[in-house]
Amino acid sequence: MTVPAGTISPTNLGIADAAPPRNYWRQVFHDTFAPTAARLGVAWIGVVAVLGIFAPLLANTHPILAKIEGHVVSPMLQNVTVPDVALLALTAWTIVCLVRRCSPSRLMLGALIVVPVAVLAALLLTHPPDVVDYTQYREMRRQGKIQWELMAPIPYSPYDFQRDIPDAELNAPSRYHWLGTDALGGDLLSRMIHACRIDLAIGLIATGIAVVIGIAIGGLMGYFAGWVDLLGMRLIEMFESIPQLFLLITFVAFFGANLYLIMAIIGLTSWTGEARFIRAEFLRLRRQDFVQAAISQGLPLSSVLFRHMLPNGIYPILITSSFGIASAILLESTLSFLGIGLSRDPSWGGMLNQALSAGGTFVWWIALFPGLAIFLTVFGYNLVGEAMRDALDPKLRT
Amino acid sequence: MPSTPNFAPEIPMPKPLLELSELSIGFTTGHRSIRPVHDVCLSIYPGQTVALVGESGCGKSVTALSILRLIPSPPGHVLGGRVLFEGRDLLALSEREMQQVRGKDIAMIFQEPMTSLNPVFTIGEQIVEAVTLHQHVGRNEAYAIAEKSMRDVGIADPHRRLLDYPHQLSGGMRQRVMIAMALSCQPKLLIADEPTTALDVTIQAQILELLRSLQQERGMSILLITHDLGVVAENADVAAVMYASRIVEHANVGELFENPQHPYTQGLFRAVPRLGVKASRLVAIPGTVPNPGRFPPGCKFHPRCALAASRASAAGAVQGVEVATDTGTVCVPKQCHATEPDLRETSREHWAACHYVAGYAKATATVPRSASQRATEVPLPVIPMAMGEGGAP
């Protein structure tokens, strides 16, 4: 169909092919990741996440595939652990959801099914030995039993302390150990790659716990106000008066250094900021017309609180939780640095601890690389938090 | 009950759908307590439109909110009275039972269409949530119901509009969406709290027309809260005039417009500009609505009442008392200052609360009840057009 020049039609007004208006969250997403700094922050966090997820493929003493005495085997798969499988399954599911553009609720529901199934399968199918012998491959190689092998880029596991190799401890960065070795002879790069998991998990899970508790308590306080608010505020003040670090030290002293315990304690003591923000938002929102309209439609309290009010009042939480992740990572690093955190499991803070204690000398590579990793990760989260605050808070817009 | 001659023969309707009896609402903050709603009696019969008219701050919105128990508590609380809906006292229901009433039996539309829709959800999601909740249908069916009710309120291309966010719609469209949402669950009573105040006049007329036609189709009742006498004239069957927490006059709309009895109502009618009458200034009732914390004793209208002032000057200084007001002092009869008049049936199906209304002394205090509905064909009595109402008479 030809449109005569000068006539008004939807096509030449540009109405027909106008893009549909962006929804609010898409706009926020766009604004958050527009600044270069935020993109760099996300890129770094993404790198850390990828390293953490694919750690067994990137740094492993066990060959990925090998022909040993005429048999093609995969020692890596034989030694795979349950967390490895769960993480990989979760990642695969997320990618599937992103490709198929599923809704976030379906992603989460699916994850609740996929992850337990993967864990169950891993428990049934894999039989990791109780004591892993890392020296066997080097021994077999020397004896010529291995015809060919496919190794991970970094051929050292984080717990491979190279007991069979003399003077493996405290080697400076070299061709064999790109970032050097630590006081026990472990490859520093391998340990740092595997530490990505622990450091990201601590940040995400501890902050996740804090956000859930903060939203529940702050939401109820803000919605009901009155004496609920009064009691809630006192509870918040009580929790704010607890010194986190000393509580952690006490618990670690009594129950030992347990990753999950540390996550839970950090989460249980850092929800107060989230609760205050949500309370303030809900106090503002509960008198809004659309909330009144939702109540007047007979919607149950849970729907009014979490479906109608929460999405309108979530933005301060997104910002604080991004800073919260950073501070949880720092807290765990502090704990490990003080030597009371995780001792055997690799964590960046724990590695820092070895930089000085080894023979009283300062080992620069152990100080520099894990320190840089902590700094960049915390910095990355802060950059994202800043960008999100600029995108979400219209008062800061210039 | 016998019907008034101006109106269509009344269908016998023994039971009102909603009955407020002596409802009083209080608000307490610190040591101060106010009573914005005082002994309000009101009945709404099936298919009827009852208008609650009054100035801002007279308690009409609080009355409406208290029916659905939406009064913020604290500080608000019910001091007394009952809200009977189909014989059940809504004030005695549990919160869970109340959720079954809200939206399903009684729906409400609010004054501000611009802020009454949740900005983060599409129109469809918001309507569908209420529909799936009350009608126990699946999502696809709920979308079909939502689409139908959007079409009923005259929204073009409802299928696409369901996917729109509120900010993509104009004020009039949003109010239509609110009405569609309210009507999607087929409520028996619709409470419309100043549904057209925030809209411009042409849209006002459309929305009122829409409410009227939807009511005729579905036979639901409407409680119309408004301060616009033009809206009352166009839509209501029965009107109750509220002043400073009380209903001061209650009558069928035709009767009220022809023969306003209470001096406050008369003042309101005088304040409406008339088409074709040249006047340099609009007539106003002197003074302002009293603050609920400082209601005057006796009749709450007496400091502003023209009738009281003229009666006092006619009777002489002995019969009157000097009352200080915002603008100076006025002399009013002792009676007005001393005792608060109750609502009495001064003529057939016409209740007023004023000592000086003809026949008030002999009249009996009865509960105001009027089931009358005007027939659609019968032309309305001569009604002054309110300011802001479009169109020639």
Radius of gyration of chain A: 26 Å
Overall helicity of chain A:
55-70%
Largest sheet of chain B: 8 strands, mixed
Our estimate of the beta-strand percent of chain A is under 5%
Poorly predicted segments of chain B: 1-8, 377-393
How many β-strands of chain A, per DSSP? 3
What is the string of helix and strand elements of chain A? Answer: HHHEEHHHHEHHHHHHHHHH
Average pLDDT number of chain A: 84
Q: Give me the CATH superfamily of the domain at 30-59 and 176-398 in chain A.
A: MetI-like
The chain pair forming the largest interface, with residue counts per chain, is: A-B, 23 and 30 residues
- Uncertain regions of chain A: pLDDT < 50 for 5+ in a row? 5-18
Q: What is the class of the domain at 30-59 and 176-398 in chain A in the CATH system? A: Mainly Alpha
CATH architecture of the domain at 30-59 and 176-398 in chain A: Orthogonal Bundle
Please tell me about this protein's structure.
The complex is a heterodimer of chains A (398) and B (393). In chain A, helix 8 runs antiparallel to helix 9 (226-240) and helix 10 (244-255) packs antiparallel against helix 11. A 3-stranded antiparallel β-sheet of chain A has the order 2-1-3, with helices on one face. Helix content of chain A is 65%, strand content 3%. Chain A has 17 helices and 3 strands. Chain A has helices at residues 24-32, 36-53, 55-58, 75-78, 82-100, 104-125, 135-143, 188-224, 226-240, 244-255, 259-269, 272-285, 289-296, 301-313, 315-337, 348-357, 364-392; strands at 65-68, 71-73, 146-150. In chain A, strand 1 and strand 2 (71-73) form a beta hairpin. With 398 residues, chain A is mostly helical. Residues 5-18 of chain A have low confidence and may be disordered. With 393 residues, chain B is of the alpha/beta class. Chain B has helices spanning 60-67, 95-101, 123-135, 139-152, 158-161, 171-183, 201-218, 229-235, 253-258, 263-271, 306-315, 334-338; strands at 18-29, 32-44, 49-53, 76-85, 88-89, 106-109, 189-193, 221-226, 238-243, 246-252, 320-324, 329-333, 344-347, 350-352. In chain B, the strands form 3 sheets. An 8-stranded mixed β-sheet of chain B has the order 6-7-8-3-9-10-14-13, with helices on both faces. Chain B has a 4-stranded antiparallel β-sheet with strand order 2-1-4-5, with helices on one face. In chain B, a hairpin with a 4-residue loop joins strand 11 (320-324) and strand 12 (329-333). In chain B, helix 3 crosses helix 4 (139-152), helix 4 packs across helix 6 (171-183) and helix 6 runs parallel beside helix 7 (201-218). Chain B is globular and about 75 Å long.
